[in-house]
Amino acid sequence: MIVIREIDPADLALFDEWYDAFRAGAVAGRSVALVIGREALGYSMRNPSPVKARIAVGAFENDRVLGAMLYEYRLTDNLDTVEVEIDVPPEHRRRGIGTALWQWAVTRTAQLGRTIVQTELGVPSEPWPGAIFAERLGFVTEHVEEQLVVPLPFDEVRLDELRESAGRLSGYRLTSWAGVCPAEHLQAYADLHTAMDQDVPTGGMTREVVPWTVSKLEANELRLNRNYLALVTMAHTEAGEPAGYTLMYLPRADADHAQQDDTLVLREHRGHNLGMHLKLANLDQLSNHRTTQRHLHTWTALTNTAMRKINTHFGFHPVEQHRELELRL
Ligand SMILES: CC(C)(COP(=O)(O)OP(=O)(O)OC[C@H]1O[C@@H](n2cnc3c(N)ncnc32)[C@H](O)[C@@H]1OP(=O)(O)O)[C@@H](O)C(=O)NCCC(=O)NCCS
């Protein structure tokens, strides 16, 4: 009989067994799947954040974990919403384990008084089990991005060509750092994060955007910094006004993967090739901080023509679709 129950993340052996199932289910059939690392997820669960609850739920048969669900919800905003990720390793599929985990999620969501369930899917090809499963439960795809990858170390010849074609940047100054944001840039960096949240396309996903404050940003960066090295380049006008930024993460315990995260150029500063210059400067940082990582990942909405063009110049190639789905209970 399959029994669904919460896992205590402080029980390290059990957490490991749960994480193995989670990972095996998530990566099956995907060539360069990016999955949150064991250390980062374990740390986050054993040291709960004041802004987000994260629960590991396992499907057990005779005390063995056969399937895993990560169940999350924000505690200070987006109070109608929960996020789920259900992963069942291929050898245990089509036995109702995914459905049993889902039923736990439905019950807990009702107990929390929440009504919106969100999930994300990596879809490398069709038909895809996760997509069929989610559609059968009633999820609707609300936003689609392409996940792209470029091999590392970055091709130096291409980098030189890009630098040459980008020319000199005029009217702006670039500042780069690794790790947490220097104190003098905190307010501007917080404001740019707010602008990013407001500007980034998320299709029909329900999302309450809450402005970043310096203290919230500092707390968030301190937590992240334990498990991820952030590489940031920020642009200012000659007069010192912030104009944009780009952000990469090197997960500290992941030998293979690096992530190109946010890139934002504020509306009034678009059209000056700033996106290109920001990314070039941050790639220089990557050369200095990279250890063994072999893949740099990024995500771009299919509708985001400007960013798709930049990604192509940098040699990114698509590996799968990244879908965001939502269901109202
Ligand atoms: C999606 C996933 C969790 C399903 O787990 P599972 O334990 O096989 O799910 P169930 O046995 O409860 O399947 C329920 C129904 O989903 C549908 N389904 C699931 N996999 C399917 C497949 N490969 N082909 C067709 N239908 C499928 C079927 O209708 C199935 O019912 P049936 O077996 O009675 O026909 C599993 O395939 C997985 O881990 N995939 C990778 C991660 C992922 O995409 N997760 C979903 C996002 S949260």
What would a concise description of this structure say?
By secondary structure, this protein is α+β, with helices and mostly antiparallel strands.
Summary keywords:
329 residues; alpha+beta; 9 helices; globular
Give the termini separation.
Answer: 27 Å
CATH topology of the largest domain: Aminopeptidase
Question: So what's the CATH class of the largest domain?
Answer: Alpha Beta
Q: What small-molecule ligands were found?
A: coenzyme A
**In terms of structural class, how would the helical and strand content be classed?**
alpha+beta
- Topology pattern, helix = H, strand = E: EHHEEEHEHEHEHHEEEHEHE
Give the CATH H-level superfamily of the largest domain. Answer: Gcn5-related N-acetyltransferase (GNAT)
- The CATH architecture term of the largest domain is 3-Layer(aba) Sandwich
Report the total helices: 9
Q: What number is the mean pLDDT? A: 96
In which order are the strands of the major sheet placed? 1-2-3-4-5-12-6-11-10-9-8-7
Q: Looking at the structure, what is the overall shape?
A: globular
Indicate the proportion of strand residues.
25-35%
Low-pLDDT parts are: none
Describe the biggest sheet?
A: 12 strands, mixed
Number of domains: 2
Number of strands: 12
Percent of residues in helices comes to 25-40%
Describe the structure.
With 329 residues, this protein is α+β, with helices and mostly antiparallel strands. It has two domains: 3-114, Gcn5-related N-acetyltransferase (GNAT) (Aminopeptidase, 3-Layer(aba) Sandwich); 148-321, Aminopeptidase (3-Layer(aba) Sandwich). 35% of the residues lie in helices and 33% in strands. It is built from nine helices and twelve strands. The chain has helices spanning 12-27, 38-46, 97-112, 129-137, 156-166, 186-199, 214-227, 274-289, 305-313, and strands spanning 3-6, 52-61, 64-74, 81-87, 116-123, 140-151, 172-178, 228-237, 242-251, 257-265, 295-301, 317-328. It has a twelve-stranded mixed beta sheet, with helices on both faces. Helix 8 links the parallel strand 10 and strand 11 (295-301). The longest helix has 16 residues, at 12-27. The relative contact order is 0.16. The mean pLDDT is 96. Keywords: Acyltransferase, Transferase. Residues 2-164 form the N-acetyltransferase domain. It holds the Pfam family Acetyltransf_1. This is GNAT family N-acetyltransferase.
